[in-house]
TrEMBL record:
SRR1-like domain segment(s): 69-176
Top-rank lineage group of the source organism: Eukaryota
Name of the featured protein: SRR1-like domain-containing protein
Organism classification: Eukaryota, Fungi, Dikarya, Ascomycota, Pezizomycotina
PANTHER family registered for this protein in UniProt: SRR1 DOMAIN-CONTAINING PROTEIN, SRR1-LIKE DOMAIN-CONTAINING PROTEIN
A Pfam short name: SRR1
């Protein structure tokens, strides 16, 4: 009689006595399931970080950052650099994967530049993002970035911190400024148009 009974859909109630018709369809996945495919390992992500860092260090923006950190004595008192909501490096789109990788390279570079400016080996880099997977966590650890669970970054913030965040889906700026007065905040606000931050 109708697709309603043909597809064995549940009874909907009295309202269907007035118009006992219902549009029904079958969903078919466009792409096959990917759970069975091998997942990238830590060396894969570490290689991506290495390649992106070489690309980043060749840019004029990196040279500007070098000059800024070296010439501003405020950076010398920084001891902790927090990367908050920098992404998983495993996004579904290439542009988001590239941007996330670049942001972790920026976090690593800030640690190196501040350590050089402060002449200190006590500079620590931390990453907080709930989407980080074990292979990415291992890769970040291998380049000197410790991962911490939410909300530890906010709890550890103080006036010797530097905060880096890019297009977060949580109010990072508002939380940070309520809790501390960091040495610096590098913030890229959320945007409808995703652009590669290295271009």
């Amino acid at each position: 009689m109708t697709g309603h009974f043909e597809y064995d859909l549940p009874f909907r109630g009295e309202e269907f006595s007035y118009l006992p018709l219902e549009v029904a369809w079958q969903e078919r996945p466009v792409c096959p399931p990917t759970q069975h495919l091998p997942q990238p390992t830590a060396p894969y992500f570490e290689g991506k970080l290495h390649d992106k860092k070489k690309e980043w260090e060749a840019t004029s923006e990196y040279k500007m950052l070098q000059t800024l950190v070296a010439s501003n004595p405020e950076f010398s008192r920084a001891r902790k650099i927090f990367g908050i909501a920098l992404g998983s490096m495993r996004a579904t789109t290439e542009i988001n994967r590239q941007n996330s990788t670049a942001q972790y390279c920026l976090l690593q570079s800030m640690g190196e530049l501040i350590a050089k400016a402060a002449q200190s080996n006590e500079i620590c880099c931390f990453a907080q993002d709930p989407d980080l997977s074990p292979p990415v966590i291992e890769a970040l650890s291998n380049i000197g970035i410790q991962t911490i669970d939410d909300p530890q970054a906010f709890l550890d913030l103080d006036d010797t911190s530097v905060v880096i965040t890019s297009a977060p889906n949580i109010p990072v700026m508002q939380i940070v400024t309520d809790l501390a007065r960091p040495v610096a905040i590098m913030w890229h606000p959320p945007s409808e148009n995703d652009k590669n931050i290295l271009t």
